[in-house]
Write a structure and sequence with these properties.
This protein is an alpha+beta fold. The protein is built from 5 helices and 8 strands. Strands 1-2-3-4-8-7-6-5 form an 8-stranded antiparallel beta sheet. A hairpin with a 2-residue loop joins strand 1 and strand 2. Helix 2 packs across helix 3. The relative contact order is 0.19.
Length: 208
């Protein structure tokens, strides 16, 4: 991954580290090909749930029904979306990435490590290509992430990795890419709730 000397605002800087986990991989990965990478199935560990942190007052608009209000015992408290989220990502990479609508949702307390990233593309093929490239690039692991594992339900493939002391899950729902990073103790219940949520409502949302 290339290093960029980029000046960012104080407001933007608090999101750079978690954003790097999701979008730093996608930048330039369209040129990556790995045909021999192997992935294996894993199960989410049970019995590690702990009491969720006390949530601070919700700062998101009341109409944010297009994202999960809760995941497990964690409540949604802040969302960065569309141009603001895209601007942070573009500044971080020093270039414009794929044309899509981006949403960054924080759950639990402020500051939070439990963050949901959602990117809505114009078509399913672009989302499918980006997901495939991302999974192949991460297949054998890196200095940040463990080797990627996967499960398949129906026609959908769900990927999983670990890094920075967090669990990371990513998958595609038609033209929408979803990435959930979560503290291990909250992984089981939050991920199960996430899989039940239908993100397709984002396609009908008018950008403010």
């Amino acid at each position: 991954m290339r290093n960029y000397n980029i000046k960012i605002s104080r407001k933007a800087s608090k999101y750079i580290i978690p954003l790097l986990l999701f979008y730093g991989i996608a930048a330039g990965c369209s040129e990556t090909t790995q045909t021999s990478a192997q992935v294996t199935l894993v199960k989410i560990p049970l019995g590690h749930a702990k009491k969720a942190p006390k949530n601070k007052p919700v700062r998101t608009p009341a109409h944010t029904n297009y994202l999960p209000k809760t995941l497990g015992d964690l409540s949604l408290y802040h969302v960065i979306q569309n141009q603001e989220a895209t601007s942070i990502i573009d500044k971080m990479h020093g270039k414009t990435l794929d044309d899509c609508k981006n949403y960054i949702a924080h759950y639990g307390n402020d500051p939070s490590k439990n963050i949901l990233y959602v990117s809505v593309y114009e078509n399913a093929e672009t989302a499918k290509t980006n997901l495939k490239n991302m999974a192949m690039k991460m297949a054998n692991g890196s200095s940040v992430f463990s080797p990627v594992t996967h499960t398949k339900m129906g026609e959908t493939v769900y990927f999983e990795t670990e890094g920075m002391g967090l669990k990371h899950y990513f998958y595609r729902m038609d033209n929408i890419l979803i990435w959930w990073q979560v503290e291990p103790d909250y992984a089981e219940t939050t991920y199960n709730d996430l899989l039940k949520f239908d993100f397709k409502g984002l396609n009908n949302r008018v950008t403010p």
